[in-house]
Amino acid sequence: MKYIVANWKMNMDSNDLNKWIGGFKEELREIDLEKHKEKLTVIVAPSNLYIPIIHWKLKDLGAGTQLVKIASQDTSVYDKGAHTGEVGGYQLSEYCGYSIVGHSERKESKDIVLKKAEMCLKNRITPIICFVSPELSADYYKDGSILAWEDPSNISVEGHYKNKEAGEVAGGFGKIRNYIETGKKVIYGGSVNEKNVEDLAKVEGLDGVLVGNASLNPKSFAQIIKAFCI
């Protein structure tokens, strides 16, 4: 299974969201997600405010199944209770099957990241656990999770891409597989876009991509999905 994850970060208001959905549905006319559902999982992570809206607006894409899954961009380390401003896994699980935890932009300690991953798993949410170097992969892995390798120096900023060459990504994944065996899911994030995704899709050991800025454009995101449908 390959995983294509859109992390919208703190972007999109309701008008942007509706335009994105309309454009994405147009692009999907050229992509038969139903045909590829056994080998490809598409996941969208909006801001918490819009999770229920995205859930319902994308629910009709599949015949009896939700072909585009929903993720949160974070989850609380707490189960429930007096934690103003926090959103717990038990709440997110109503709409989300996945949650991104430990994104490098949040600058959280390993202990915090792993606590968040544990809360996801407790609530039947698959954590997408971010880590910054191949040597750390085994430290962050938990059974039932997806790992996401992201080098902060390669994350796009305000639409400017700073991507690694595919060969460098391949070398990193070779190192990762020294710590994390094949079968445990590991994806890559770092300025993934429609121009470099075809080369990334060929990297041995890569189980998908975490897409930031490029996922805000439905046409670009669709092109990234297409690269993994071949």
UniProtKB/TrEMBL annotation:
<dbReference type="GO" id="GO:0019563">
    <property type="term" value="P:glycerol catabolic process"/>
</dbReference>
<protein>
    <recommendedName>
        <fullName>Triosephosphate isomerase</fullName>
        <ecNumber>5.3.1.1</ecNumber>
    </recommendedName>
</protein>
<dbReference type="Pfam" id="PF00121">
    <property type="entry name" value="TIM"/>
</dbReference>
<dbReference type="GO" id="GO:0006096">
    <property type="term" value="P:glycolytic process"/>
</dbReference>
<comment type="subunit">
    <text>Homodimer.</text>
</comment>
<dbReference type="InterPro" id="IPR035990">
    <property type="entry name" value="TIM_sf"/>
</dbReference>
<dbReference type="GO" id="GO:0004807">
    <property type="term" value="F:triose-phosphate isomerase activity"/>
</dbReference>
<dbReference type="InterPro" id="IPR000652">
    <property type="entry name" value="Triosephosphate_isomerase"/>
</dbReference>
<comment type="pathway">
    <text>Carbohydrate biosynthesis; gluconeogenesis.</text>
</comment>
<keyword id="KW-0324">Glycolysis</keyword>
<dbReference type="InterPro" id="IPR013785">
    <property type="entry name" value="Aldolase_TIM"/>
</dbReference>
<dbReference type="GO" id="GO:0046166">
    <property type="term" value="P:glyceraldehyde-3-phosphate biosynthetic process"/>
</dbReference>
<comment type="pathway">
    <text>Carbohydrate degradation; glycolysis; D-glyceraldehyde 3-phosphate from glycerone phosphate: step 1/1.</text>
</comment>
<keyword id="KW-0312">Gluconeogenesis</keyword>
<keyword id="KW-0413">Isomerase</keyword>
<keyword id="KW-0963">Cytoplasm</keyword>
<dbReference type="GO" id="GO:0005829">
    <property type="term" value="C:cytosol"/>
</dbReference>
<comment type="similarity">
    <text>Belongs to the triosephosphate isomerase family.</text>
</comment>
<dbReference type="GO" id="GO:0006094">
    <property type="term" value="P:gluconeogenesis"/>
</dbReference>
